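Hello forum,

I keep getting stuck at the same step: I have a sequence, I want structure tokens, and every attempt I make locally crashes halfway through. Rather than fight my setup again tonight, could one of you with a working pipeline run this one for me? It's a single chain of 259 residues.
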Amino acid sequence: MNLDLLRKKQGFICDMDGVIYHGDHLLPGAQAFVEWLKEENKKFLFLTNSSEKSPRELKEKLDRLGIQVEATHFYTSALATASFLASQRPNGSAYVIGEAGLINALYETGFSMNEVNPDYVVVGESRSYSYEKIERAVRLVRNGAKLIGANPDLTDKLGRDFAPATGALIAPIELASGTKAYFVGKPNPIMMRHGRKLLACEREDTAIVGDRMDTDIIAGIHSDIDTVLVLSGVTSKEDLKHFAYHPRYILSGVGDIPE
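Reply #2:
Ran it on my machine without issues. Output:
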């Protein structure tokens, strides 16, 4: 596998969990990779399907793990969702099942919170998920609110364990309301286009680095940019046989990218 062409790329879109860290533990080679990005003057963006935290909180997390980058290098599914909804319905309203990162992103684009007759029901990762919230969301969707998922991920990996993610949390609302959600996060090309726009990098000069075939790698294929699968997260080499598509590069971790 010739990595010279990959190393010559000017723009890198990187997932975070499973690529840079697992939970609160930095992955081997991650620090060297980020230092290489900075030393080589690469344009880079941490593009995460997580909607829980703001760019500032993600920056502070990397600070604690020993990696210093500015908050402008982070883009989340919460920001992508808020941007998309603001373009669809400026100054709209939403009922949100999610954490502060998603709620604040919506506030910052001019949205208001509404539990009575919102334009949208928006779901992201949530630690305060409840039957009462599902019941209200179903009622609002059946009354005309559009159902939006920040991302389609079914699970999040927490250390060695898995936890339900947005795709799993929104499923009861879809089933009970008879409505399919629209998901904004990866692999939706909308999020990738926003990311590349922030990078200001040409398609052929950009690569996406991720650990999930069903979000990161397929998002790169849909966006026609080179794909790098790292085996430090969710996907194993054994899993590849279950997919009809294939990444351009397969690496054990991001530490393999710097020379």
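The first strand starts at residue 11 and ends at 14. If your local run keeps crashing, start a new thread with the error log.
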